[in-house]
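Structure (tokenized):
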């Protein structure tokens, strides 16, 4: 009888211990799951609370660059709302100021830098090799960053969008409008390497068409008028590439070219509006917007900027200034869109 009782008690004890062990395991599993859920919630909350600080260095204030900056800001604001903060700085056309601004952005450890125009890009790229730098309104990245064997990507912390319109088509446009011209003056700022690139490239196309091309370069805004005067006296038509200093001095250029009766073909719409007759232009707002989308991919989706291809505007538009064309008696083809005068 005692043996039977002992056996029964042993079985009850074993069942009790198993139950306790199972209960302990379930509690541990529940706590582990709860902790994992809490971690996920914390991570989600942290992501939603993240505020991205972006420095914007714009070389100079003029219509084209202003539009690119606005497009960039609009793209990010649409995606991030008040989770993005912009520190927008203007260098007033001075490359040294671009360097100072870029160094300030780096010291502030901003999440990303937008460099609007070539000098701003060069300054930002020199200031940091870790913070992502996106350029816009930059004509040729290989020239700006001194890259040989250009493949479309930089391979380091820089990418962005280009404002290059097809130079062969711009040369063809000049020929269509001025088939009888012989001497083409190319006017640009010597401090802009991308302007030199455009001048060299379009000269090749124009010389194949039978034109004689001469470069007329000014160092800064102080000698724009005098250089323009020389160009007008020696040229049948003038071509101005996408040049930021020229874009900020269109009034001074027009004050010389218009009385001289010398037409100007411009590399972009802002210059054309200020002093030109016609242009084959891109939308600077659109390339700025595309740059903002690239920034979102970098900041939020973790895209590798070093592998991001530089983007180009998919669309170009033939535009003209009706009043100047009429004043010079130039007939504009039907596929051109009139630029609205201010």
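Design, position by position:
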């Amino acid at each position: 009888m005692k043996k039977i009782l002992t056996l029964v008690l042993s079985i009850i004890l074993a069942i009790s211990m198993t139950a306790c062990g199972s209960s302990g395991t379930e509690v541990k599993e529940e706590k582990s799951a709860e902790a994992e859920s809490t971690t996920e919630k914390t991570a989600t909350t942290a992501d939603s609370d993240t505020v991205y600080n972006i420095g914007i260095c714009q070389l100079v204030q003029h219509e084209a660059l202003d539009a690119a900056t606005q497009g960039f800001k609009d793209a990010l604001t649409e995606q991030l709302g008040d989770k993005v903060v912009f520190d927008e700085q203007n260098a007033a056309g001075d490359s040294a100021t671009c360097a100072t601004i870029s160094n300030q952005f780096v010291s502030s450890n901003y999440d990303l830098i937008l460099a609007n125009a070539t000098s701003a890009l060069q300054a930002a790229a020199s200031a940091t090799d870790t913070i992502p730098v996106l350029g816009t309104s930059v004509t040729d990245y290989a020239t700006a960053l001194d890259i040989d064997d250009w493949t479309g990507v930089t391979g380091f912390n820089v990418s962005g969008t280009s404002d290059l319109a097809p130079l062969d088509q711009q040369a063809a446009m000049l020929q269509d409008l001025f088939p009888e011209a012989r001497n083409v003056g190319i006017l640009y700022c010597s401090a802009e390497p991308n302007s030199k690139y455009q001048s060299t490239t379009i000269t090749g196309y124009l010389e194949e068409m039978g034109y004689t091309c001469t470069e007329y370069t000014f160092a800064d805004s102080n000698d724009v008028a005098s250089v323009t005067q020389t160009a007008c006296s020696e040229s049948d038509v003038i071509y101005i590439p996408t040049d930021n200093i020229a874009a900020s001095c269109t009034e001074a250029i027009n004050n010389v070219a218009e009385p001289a009766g010398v037409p100007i073909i411009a590399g972009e719409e802002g210059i054309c509006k200020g002093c030109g007759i016609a242009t084959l232009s891109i939308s600077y707002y659109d390339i700025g917007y595309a740059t903002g989308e690239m920034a979102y991919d970098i900041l939020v989706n973790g895209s590798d900027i070093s592998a991001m291809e530089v983007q180009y505007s998919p669309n170009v538009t033939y535009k003209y200034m009706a009043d100047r064309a009429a004043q010079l008696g130039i007939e504009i083809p039907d596929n051109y869109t009139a630029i609205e005068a201010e």
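Reviewer-requested clarification: The two ends are 113 Å apart (CA to CA). The mean pLDDT is 88.
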